[in-house]
Backbone:
């Protein structure tokens, strides 16, 4: 069954440092996608980065990169050079492309606080 | 502007009342979903739809009904509101295939309180 686990309820990072948010997943579908979303205190869901299961390289989007370790079923988000505006809730999510249901399943989320 | 529109943004209901949360998208997305967000539990899938006329249950469907008569609209109905349904509700939509736009687009959310 589709499952996403985020084991860090809260994280602190010093401004300008890098931080890694953990995400592990479970699926029996060989074709899947992993997503990271940011939810600031205002509440909107902001799409950050995507990694496909067949992608050969780790995804990068500006200061965001995804450390994809397929054998370990992990898809950790790395934020480089943290900024105060990065303080938010972060969600990892997965979609199984083979099932064609379109279901996007989320982890419990990690609250990141960036200290000045 | 293209996107997902949810109404209302805030709502207070009395226990036992019914209401419909509206969701509309103008991107011709095939897939639409409803989620509820509760503290410490992330977003949980209530119902989803893969196209007009087709809906299915997610993780937490009890107490909610949906229908999808058009590609654009996917309303969520609370039949008899209960305090346990106090939550923030998100509607989201997506293409069906691994197109250039991989992610779901989310509405701005509805904060529902049942007293």
Residues:
């Amino acid at each position: 069954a589709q499952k996403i686990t985020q084991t860090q309820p809260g994280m602190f990072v010093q401004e300008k440092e890098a931080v890694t948010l953990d995400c592990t997943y479970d699926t029996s579908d060989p074709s899947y996608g992993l997503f990271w979303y940011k939810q600031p205190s205002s509440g909107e869901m902001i799409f950050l980065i995507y990694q496909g299961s067949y992608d050969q390289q780790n995804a990068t989007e500006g200061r965001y990169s995804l450390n994809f370790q397929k054998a370990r079923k992990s898809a950790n988000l790395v934020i480089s050079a943290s900024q105060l505006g990065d303080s938010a809730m972060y969600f990892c999510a997965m979609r199984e492309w083979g099932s064609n249901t379109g279901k996007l399943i989320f982890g419990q989320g990690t609250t990141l606080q960036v200290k000045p | 502007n293209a996107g997902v529109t949810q109404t209302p943004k805030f709502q207070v209901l009395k226990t036992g009342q019914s209401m419909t949360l509206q969701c509309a998208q103008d991107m011709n997305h095939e897939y639409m979903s409803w989620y509820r967000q509760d503290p410490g539990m992330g977003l949980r899938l209530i119902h989803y739809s893969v196209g007009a006329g087709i809906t299915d249950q997610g993780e937490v469907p009890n107490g909610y009904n949906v229908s999808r008569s058009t590609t654009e609209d996917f309303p969520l109905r609370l039949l008899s509101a209960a305090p346990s349904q106090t939550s923030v509700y998100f509607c989201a939509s997506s293409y069906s295939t691994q197109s250039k736009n991989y992610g779901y687009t989310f509405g701005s959310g509805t904060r529902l309180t049942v007293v």
Remarks:
- The first strand of chain A starts at residue 3 and ends at 5.
- Chain A has a mean pLDDT of 94.
- Chain A has no helices and twelve strands.
